[in-house]
Amino acid sequence: MLAGGAAAALGGVELFRFRRGTDKLLGIVPFEGEGRSPLDTLLGDELDGRQFTDLSHLDRDRLITPTSLFYVRTRASHLLETSKSWSIRMGAGRIAIEQLRAQAKPQGTHLMECAGNTRATSFGMISVAAWDGVPLAGMLDRMRFDKRARILVSGFDKYSAKPVTPSVPGASWIFSRRDIDDSGAFLATAMNGQPLTPDHGEPVRLVIPGWYGCACIKWVNEIAPVDDAANPTSQMQEYAARTNQRGLPALARDYQPAVIDPAAMPVRIEKWLVNGKVQYKVIGIVWGGPQLASDLLIRSGPEEPYVPVSGVLPVRSSWGLWTYSWTPVHSGTYRIRLRLADASVRTRRLDEGFYVRQVRVM
């Protein structure tokens, strides 16, 4: 077994393998009952466009998702024209993309997860990038937005073809000023040190840290104040259930912030020969909430007790990597589930078993 939580937290495949010369990696155990869509591959077009990130490669030196592998929920429209000068209408004024780029500074490393991230996509609609951009709160102040107003952020949403999937046009979301201030929302112009690509919102997208990706509007072209009686946008309505709203609120002000609760799941299960005995190593991630949870518990079946995982290697505003050395008591199918030790923390999707993953060991 791994010696100590700190070693486990930092222990990618290589560290685990070379702690003892007799250890041997026998293979990776696949998860069962999940989608068969190709991972790390662009699929479809426009509103039907998707890319699911392969999380199985995550390790201590691979915690940032390359831009080319970052998940995609909607691909760029064929009608989108970014070669011309782009500007954002802000109230009664405008700000040119050149101005934004000149003001952009590193905004840190942030995770983004699609509210529709499911087992059918191998939970591949979640990724992490380092972003550059301009804080939105400061821009609103400079443009003299009333701090009591709600803020509508809209993006380009015209497409050349009707979608086959049940996707709805309408790239916009309404926020309270407190939502923007508390989250540290910013307009991103670059990710991972390079300008945004079309599928990731070129030339500018909203990033609202800690919120689901449906609120992180791409191809931003308008930011406008709206009154307290504003109706929700079509995007807010489409994602009401997935962002844990209570029914379908009639007004935008009645929507709860689309924040991601603390969550965790395995991303890879390795089969090892350790001192002549077969042993499994579960590698997983934890994310969500105002700070990463470090008190994770795991079990491999409903008849088994929850036990602690090894320490978490955190990345601020991102995800953390954890490990668990597992010796199954018998061959068969196991359903691996996690929860937080602190039951007072709200973890809606963990409570529902949303991120449970199933494996078969022989």
- Helix count, DSSP H or I runs of 4 or more residues: 7
In which range does the helix fraction lie?
Answer: 10-25%
**What is the total tally of β strands?**
19
* Low-confidence residue ranges: 1-19
- Backbone shape: elongated
Report the C-alpha radius of gyration, rounded: 22 Å
> How many strands, which pairing sense, and closed or not: the largest β-sheet?
5 strands, antiparallel
The CATH superfamily of the largest domain is Oxidoreductase, molybdopterin-binding domain
How many discrete structural domains? Answer: 2
Residue-averaged pLDDT, rounded?
Answer: 90
The CATH topology of the largest domain turns out to be Sulfite Oxidase, Chain A, domain 2
Using the 3D structure, state the CATH architecture of the largest domain.
Alpha-Beta Complex
What does this structure look like?
The chain has 362 residues and is mainly beta. The chain has two domains: 5-32 and 261-361, Immunoglobulin-like, CATH 2.60.40; 46-254, Sulfite Oxidase, Chain A, domain 2 (Alpha-Beta Complex), CATH 3.90.420.10. The chain has seven helices and 19 strands. The strands form four sheets. It has a five-stranded antiparallel sheet, with no helix packed on it. Strands 4-3-12-7-8 form a five-stranded mixed sheet. Strands 5, 6, 9, 10 and 11 form a five-stranded antiparallel sheet that branches. The protein starts with a helix and ends with a strand. 41% of the residues are buried. Mean pLDDT is 90; it is low at 1-19.
